[in-house]
Amino acid sequence: xxxxxxxLEGKVIGRxxxxxxxxxxxxxxxxxxxxxxxxxxxHVVLDNYATHKHPxxxxxxxxxxxxxxxxxxxxxxxxxxxxxxxxRLTRRRLKRGAFRSIVELQAAINxxxxxxxxxxKPFVWTAHPDRVIAAVQRGMQxxxxxxxxxxxxEITNAVGPIxxxxxxxxxxxxxxxxxxxxYKCSRQFSQSLRSSRRA
Length: 199
Known about the structure:
50% helix; 6 strands; 2 domains; Nucleotidyltransferase, domain 5; two-stranded antiparallel ribbon; 6 helices; alpha+beta; globular; two-stranded parallel sheet; 199 residues
C-alpha cells in the first residue's frame, strides 16, 4: 500500500498495489499529481527506502518540479505523519481482522481510507518538543556505550586472526561472524539497558 496524507486537511490518497517497486511508486506519484490542483507545490516526506531514491524516480522528479522530496533521517520514520495513519489502520481495521484473500484485505483498507476522507482531521503534534528532545537524549545516553562496543568490537574470525570491524556489524560478510557479533551486540545492549533502568 502507498499512502499520502495531507497534514493540513487530514485527507488521504491511498493505493493498494501488489508490489512496492519503483514502477508502482511512480504510478502512485502520478496519482497524487492528478488529485492535487495544478500550481500547488507538493512536499513529499519519505523514508530512506531504496525505491524512493531509484534513478528512474529521480528522473521522474526532475521532470516534475512541483514535487519536492524530503527524506527523514534513518531510523526516524516516526517523524513522518503518515506513519500515524498506518498505525490507525493497523489498530482499527487490520489487527483483529480475518481476511480470506488479498481482495478482502484491499477492500478493508479502501473502506478505511474512504471513512478517513469522509471525516478528515488535520494532523496535530500533541507531544511537547521539549519532551521529545529529552527522550532522544535519554536514548542516546543509553545507546552510547553500545555504539562504542559496535564501532570498535574486535572479534575472532572463523578462518583468520583477530581484526577490528569499523561501523555497523552487518557489513561483515562472514555469516558465522555476523551472527556471533549480532548476539554479542544484543547481549551488551540489553545489559546496558538493564543497568540504566536500575540507575
